[in-house]
Write a structure and sequence with these properties.
2 domains, single chain, Tetracycline Repressor, domain 2, mainly alpha, Arc Repressor Mutant, subunit A, 187 residues
Amino acid sequence: MAREMLRQGGRSARIQAEVHRTVQDLLKTMDRSEITVPMIAERAGVTPSTIYRRWGDLSELLADVAVARMRPIADPDDTGALASDMEAFVVQYAEEMSSRVGRAMLVDVVGSVQSGAAAQCCQYTYHHLETLRERAVARGETPFDVEEAIDRVMAPIVYHILFGDRELSPDYCRTLVRGFFAVSVYE
């Protein structure tokens, strides 16, 4: 995340938007290992010191761009039942995050220690799971523990995405969800 508070619509917000756009454009045509702060600065029309002052280093900037791209634009689908809501959310999450772009964003976020980008990214997932939990309660369904869902469903998915040791098929994701509900909700 940016180190300073940004005024909505102010100069800082415009600079941040232009630097983010420039990074996204570069990532479409180049490998991230080829991208440098001076290259970003030149194309964004700012000085390298502006980038260093605001983000600290390239990894923090890449993480900030990734978190901005990961920000949810809508609540998870409402299928009418908790189990199918959770399955739909988990399958979609695994599909998006295991894509080349999703994996690169996860690597950028996880590789960023100072900015709190990983915590922000995690909050997005917590928010979606809380939404699913609240829907279940409103429908009279048995709620689930969000932290347990993170540990037993989301963490294995992120692990397999980052290490690329398993294909995250929809069936695998559904098996995680079914196993979670079999043990967690109905004990």
